[in-house]
Amino acid sequence: MNKYIMIILLGLIVTGCSSTVQVKHEGTTKSGMLEEVPKWFVEKKGNKGVFGKKDKFYLYGVGVATSPDLQLAMEKATMIAKADLADVMHGEMNKNANLYIQEVGAEGAKMVNSQAESTIVNLIKQTKVQGYEQWEVALSITSNNEYRVYMGLQLPLGELNKLQKLVKAEINKNINMENGDIAIENLSKIATE
């Protein structure tokens, strides 16, 4: 009888301990740089693949944010991870390069001044990011006593395919509505002539 009571008590203690998450204080170097970050955050690897390799049936996005409020830090990190997913899905890169060359001075003693500028813009247009799942999260407390949240999201490619079909259907619906409006407008013009 005492064995059963001890097992029940031990089970309650283990269950009670497993309902919380330990948040550790971050270690930083003298310059204020972090000493460590989660490996999954840097490598964007899910643990659902075979032999610990990145699963090819998911897109991965990560984000990190800080806030004195834990919920706000989680929401900010989630939004950044969603933007990372949107970039993978529909990000567009544009580059603008400018070169300016000027020749100055008198004949025989001319100098050439040149200036080059290159700008790269990563544009993410309106993108639906739905059906994602949280696959990793890590918490720590900064030296400023704020929560730092590392968030990892994954989007099953099946969900991405569903989203793309929904977007195409919505575009076709809008095109058909516009074509219908144009057809009605043309019929109205013909009827009044």
Task: Describe, in plain words, how this protein is organized in 3D.
With 193 residues, the protein is an alpha+beta fold. Helix content is 40%, strand content 31%. It has four helices and six strands, in the order αβαβαββββα. Strands 1-5-6-2 form a four-stranded mixed beta sheet. It has a two-stranded antiparallel ribbon with strand order 3-4. A hairpin with a 6-residue loop joins strand 3 and strand 4. The longest helix is centred in the C-terminal third of the chain and has 36 residues, at 157-192. The radius of gyration is 28 Å and the shape is flat. The mean pLDDT is 77.
Strand content: 25-35%
Strand order, sheet with most strands: 1-5-6-2
Approximate shape: flat
Ends apart, CA distance between termini? 99 Å
Derived structural class: alpha+beta
Question: Briefly, what is this?
Answer:
The chain is an alpha+beta fold.
Topology diagram in text:
Layout: H1 2-17, E1 24-25, H2 39-43, E2 58-67, H3 70-90, E3 91-104, E4 111-124, E5 133-141, E6 147-156, H4 157-192
Parallel strand pairs: 1-5
Antiparallel strand pairs: 2-6, 3-4, 5-6
Features:
single chain, 193 residues, alpha+beta, 4-stranded mixed sheet, two-stranded antiparallel ribbon, 4 helices, 40% helix, 31% strand, flat
